[in-house]
Structures are given as C-alpha cells and as structure tokens.
C-alpha cells in the first residue's frame, strides 16, 4: 500500500522540494497551508508539473487547528505514515529589541508545533508498528545566531523533543529525527542583499548555498526502510559551516 506523507508548511521554499521528491519516491503527499490565497496557485503549479497533492488549512501553532486538520486528513486520505514537521518562521531582533509577541510567535510555530502536530499522528504510527517523524530544525539551533534568541531556542528545543520521543517510540517501529540545514537558496535567503549573501557564502566551506532539493533528498532517505536504524539523530546539512 502507498505510504502517506504529511509535510507541514509544504508550500514554502524547502517544503515544495520535499513534497515533490516524496511524490517522486512514490509516496502519497499531503501538505498544510496557513496563509490564505497562496494555495490555489501552488496547487495549480504542482498539477501542471504532474503532481497530485492534497492541501489542508492548518495553523501549526494552534492545537485545535491541528486537530481539525488531522480529522479532515484522516477522513479523506487515511493514516499518516511519514510526518515532516517543516513549517517555521523567523522574527529576528536582538534580545534588547525582541518583543514578547515575536518570542511567542517563533516558539509557537517552530516548537509548540511539534507537540500540536505530532500528537495527532504518532499514536497511530505506534499502533500500526511503523512511522517516521522528521523535524526540520536549523544550524542556528546548533550554534546560536546573533539576533535570533527566539529562533535559536526554538530550533534547539526541537532536537530535545526528537531525542526524547525517539526513545519512547523506538520499539514501535517509529523513528524520530532532526535535520539541521544551514543556509539554503530559498526565496527568503535570495532576498538578502547580495553583499550579505556573499559574506554568508564565505563562511560555508563548500563555497555555496545549499539547494532545497538537497534537503529534500535527505528527507526521502530518512523516510525510507533503509533508515530504520537511524533515530534520535540530528543530521546537519550545512556545507561544513558548523561541525560537531
Ligand atoms: P518558507 O518561509 O518558504 O516556508 C515556511 C512554511 O511554513 C510556509 O509554507 C508557511 O505556510 C508555513 N508556516 C508558517 N507559519 C505557519 C503556521 N503558523 N502554521 C502553519 N504553517 C506555517 O521557509 P523555508 O522553506 O525556507 O523553511 C522551511 C523550514 O526550514 C523552516 O522550519 C525553517 O526554519 C527551516 N530552515 C530554513 C533554512 C533556509 O535557509 N531557508 C535554513 C535552516 C532551516 P504559509 O505560507 O501558508 O503560512
């Protein structure tokens, strides 16, 4: 039977590549969107490229919204086998200027979301004896980043969640892993002024930004049978920018 993958925030720069590669690998793919308006064009582009994705509205920072999304998804498609917690935001400011709402927003979307979304699907994976949870963190959760106390804390917290849940569900055939991308050439990063981008690239030993497709291929591998012995890991994909 075809396995079902859910990618939260799958209409973004990295999410789109993840959805497409999972579909190319033979999975049925569902995604979520939170910003009204963008989904029609994204789905139309995907259809034109030969993909048949399912999209569900969901605010990952809100538990009730995640429960409603899970109910709608189950009714339409059945049980989720592979969950990619990809939705995320930044609200950058030095700690001195960081506002309380911007702290909460980043915690809600990047960290609370792991509880809100995983809670909907992990029990069922355990009961069925197979599952994959893949959490998209960041290099900045590993090394900290100036101007990102909120984002660095939330992204580091994601891996704490991964390590604990991995231990709880390992015997049930469910793996839980974090991946920590460095700078990836998404719209957001390409919008950074060229001189700042060049400075960033100067810090990357491989000498270039990563590609969304490179992140996606790591996820396809983690979702596969061959990755069944990898759990509780935090896999860096950063061109050598941060090691250890
Ligand atoms: P994008 O901004 O392109 O996409 C983020 C996605 O998250 C969007 O689809 C957005 O959906 C969704 N999202 C945001 N807020 C919510 C919410 N409250 N509820 C549901 N969905 C939400 O980002 P990227 O593709 O660049 O990043 C994807 C992940 O990778 C993020 O977790 C990011 O932190 C991480 N990352 C990115 C790096 C990079 O270089 N780009 C580097 C390291 C990590 P919508 O538009 O519908 O709101």
Spatial strand arrangement across the major sheet: 3-2-1-4-5-6-7
How big a fraction of the residues is strand? 5-15%
Q: Which homologous superfamily in CATH is the superfamily?
A: NAD(P)-binding Rossmann-like Domain
- The structural domain count equals 1
Share of residues in helices: 40-55%
Explain what the structure shows.
- With 244 residues, the protein is of the alpha/beta class.
- The protein has a single domain, classed as Rossmann fold (3-Layer(aba) Sandwich).
- 48% of the residues lie in helices and 15% in strands.
- The chain contains nine helices and seven strands; from the N terminus they run βαβαβαβαβααβαααβ.
- A seven-stranded parallel sheet has the order 3-2-1-4-5-6-7, with helices on both faces.
- The longest helix has 29 residues.
- It binds NADPH dihydro-nicotinamide-adenine-dinucleotide phosphate.
- Pfam families: adh_short.
């Amino acid at each position: 039977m075809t396995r079902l993958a859910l990618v939260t925030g799958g209409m973004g720069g990295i999410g789109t590549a993840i959805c497409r590669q999972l579909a190319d690998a033979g999975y049925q793919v569902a995604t979520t969107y939170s910003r009204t308006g963008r989904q029609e064009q994204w789905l139309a582009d995907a259809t034109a490229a030969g993909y048949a994705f399912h999209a569900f509205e969901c605010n990952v920072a809100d538990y009730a919204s995640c429960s409603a999304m899970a109910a709608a998804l189950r009714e339409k498609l059945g049980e989720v086998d592979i969950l990619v917690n990809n939705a995320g935001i930044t609200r950058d400011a030095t700690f001195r200027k960081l506002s309380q709402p911007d702290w909460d927003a980043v915690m809600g979307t990047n960290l609370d979301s792991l509880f809100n979304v995983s809670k909907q699907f992990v029990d069922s994976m355990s009961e069925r004896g197979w599952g994959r949870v893949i959490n998209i963190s960041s290099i900045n959760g590993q090394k900290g980043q100036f101007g990102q106390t909120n984002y660095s804390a939330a992204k580091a917290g994601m891996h704490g969640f991964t390590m604990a849940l991995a231990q709880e569900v390992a015997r049930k055939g469910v793996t839980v892993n974090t991946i920590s991308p460095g700078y990836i050439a998404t719209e957001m990063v390409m919008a950074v002024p060229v001189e700042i981008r060049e400075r960033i690239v100067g810090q990357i030993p491989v000498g270039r930004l990563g590609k969304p497709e490179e992140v996606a291929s790591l996820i396809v591998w983690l979702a596969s049978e061959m990755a069944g012995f990898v759990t509780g890991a935090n896999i860096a994909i950063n061109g050598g920018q941060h090691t250890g």
